Amino acid sequence: xxxxxxxxxxxxxxxxxxxxxxxxxxxxxxxxxxxxxxxxxxxxxxxxxxxxxxxxxxxxxxxxxxxxxxxxxxxxxxxxxxxxxxxxxxxxxxxxxxxxxxxxxxxxxxxxxxxxxxxxxxxxxxxxxxxxxxxxxxxxxxxxxxxxxxxxxxxxxxxxxxxxxxxxxxxxxxxxxxxxxxxxxxxxxxxxxxxxxxxxxxxxxxxxxxxxxxxxxxxxxxxxxxxx
Length: 228
Description:
It is a single chain. With 228 residues, the protein is an alpha/beta fold. It has a single domain (5-218), classed as Spore Coat Polysaccharide Biosynthesis Protein SpsA, Chain A, CATH 3.90.550. It has six helices and 13 strands. The chain has a five-stranded mixed beta sheet with strand order 4-3-1-5-10. A three-stranded mixed beta sheet has the order 6-13-12. A three-stranded mixed beta sheet has the order 9-8-11, with no helix packed on it. Helix 2 (63-76) runs antiparallel to helix 4. It is globular.
């Protein structure tokens, strides 16, 4: 079986000097097996090495649109594996996983999202789009990596009307696939007391000091992706 590449989609404005990516890569090296290359699409911190960088600017004020454009770049790039694991810089693995069999995690249905901000509007757009097409409407945007198939991504995500609407990408993709999935609570945490029992965690844009200390102690050793 061909090993999948890992694709990080990176923006600008890290509030922790890109330490999120540093510890995410350390967690990948420690807890993930059977993957090939690491791609960074977007920004490239100066300290990184042994990664493949594909520059891509953020052209929209909407984060999901910028993510969509970077993932489109990945989906049409012939050098990236047909199946690739997409990750954000604030995803941290705490347990062992195998890249080709990475679980598909979800939480409650999209309709249960009670946010009324622009993100909530994108969730509603996604729920309505999937419902109209006759697909399930589970929420897969639980702040974990996800395995994408390039052809399926182009067929399911790229064909949505991104010119008029925007969506939450992982839910838009996963609900249109015949896949196995696992119910979990959202992995985004703020305090260390919320880590217990989690195999993956994600942080807020400006992690609390106790979370920063946890990551430093959990992943003290440099990965092969750090030049200094």
